[in-house]
């Protein structure tokens, strides 16, 4: 029986998982999203066309690849249908997209709750209702994808939820104005007819795939430092983004996981609030932001930028058993006079190791052809972190990738 490979963000999200999953997906029969929701976002450029992915796994651009939205995901049906439209919609995706019965639904009141909570908590969420949908899941009052099969019952339950929320948040009841019953039922019936055919027992599907020696890639969302248990709580997302989440989010046991690839940029970014020890809230950060195009795909927000944080990266490797790292956006560091790496946290802030900068790593496809100083930087990083850097990305293009 083969094992599933796992790709995870090893920082605060936006590491460039999309490019790597897209690049590796052609080798796989299944690509599986195991957590998070449409708070995630990346753009994939293929055949001169741009695609924005939020919930659909990144294998969708390969005809032979089956894409699974697993039980650990929280799913907004209308956002999913919009996303599916980019790939030809419902008919074109039959037998190519699978949705777990047990994925939890994100409904409009989850978004309202997210926005209300942000007034006091100031986490800087994406406002997509992710936290409230997971909160409902944990408090056993959520709705599952399989509930879409019974629109009438679901409609009654959703209306009951609105009246409960209207009472609970009486001062903000305008956020929880119940939808018109007929319109809601019509909408839920349309979800059933569009999405009903994609529902499946995803654990069974994946067990069987591995038994038949199919190649399975598990695709993480967000990043290790946003993990609900291991991240910078409370400035985190509401799911387990580290390796444990890949097991609970799919039903695959730990013994079914093979390679664990951690994705890290050659520097660091973070959106939303919370600690960021290597942040450069200065001209260096601004240069990284402009050169790296560091603006959110989902929210358009400018990302906070700083030097690579080797302390956090080392921790991410330990948390998930990362066996190799893909280092993304090395080319963004081209032209910096010096490049720094945060190596320890002290009372007076982060301590850095400094490296001389380099020019012209952009587009390089062989390690030996990288500028010597860039090679030195990468070798030093491997020593500091203690994990091999097996892939290096030198532009957004699929081909501009070094396999070391
Ligand atoms: P939520 O996941 O929308 O609840 O947001 C919680 C925190 O996670 C916020 O700081 C968000 O900016 C961050 N976050 C959520 N999804 C992503 C992502 O895909 N990339 C980067 N940050 C994210």
Can you describe what's shown?
There is one protein chain. The protein is an alpha/beta fold and 404 residues long. Helix content is 32%, strand content 21%. The chain has twelve helices and 19 strands. It has helices spanning 17-25, 77-85, 89-93, 108-121, 130-138, 151-168, 181-195, 202-211, 243-248, 283-292, 310-320, 372-385, and strands spanning 4-9, 30-33, 42-46, 49-53, 66-69, 74-75, 97-100, 104-105, 199-200, 216-219, 257-265, 268-270, 304-306, 308-309, 324-328, 338-346, 349-356, 389-393, 401-403. The strands form five sheets. A ten-stranded mixed β-sheet has the order 9-7-5-2-10-1-11-15-18-19, sandwiched between helices. The chain has a three-stranded mixed β-sheet with strand order 14-16-17. Strands 3-4 form a two-stranded antiparallel ribbon. A hairpin with a 2-residue loop joins strand 16 (338-346) and strand 17. Helix 4 packs across helix 5 (130-138) and helix 6 packs across helix 7 (181-195). The structure holds inosinic acid.
List keywords for this structure.
32% helix; 404 residues; binds inosinic acid; alpha/beta
Structure summary:
Helix content is 32%, strand content 21%.
The share of residues in extended strands comes to: 15-25%
Helical run tally: 12
Q: Within the largest sheet, what's the order of strands?
A: 9-7-5-2-10-1-11-15-18-19
- Using DSSP, what is the number of strands? 19
Bound molecules: inosinic acid
**Largest sheet descriptor:** 10 strands, mixed
Q: Which runs of at least 5 residues are low in confidence (pLDDT < 50)?
A: none
Shape: globular
Helix content: 25-40%
Q: Average pLDDT across residues?
A: 95
How does the helix and strand content classify structurally? alpha/beta
CA radius of gyration:
21 Å
Terminal Cα span: 28 Å
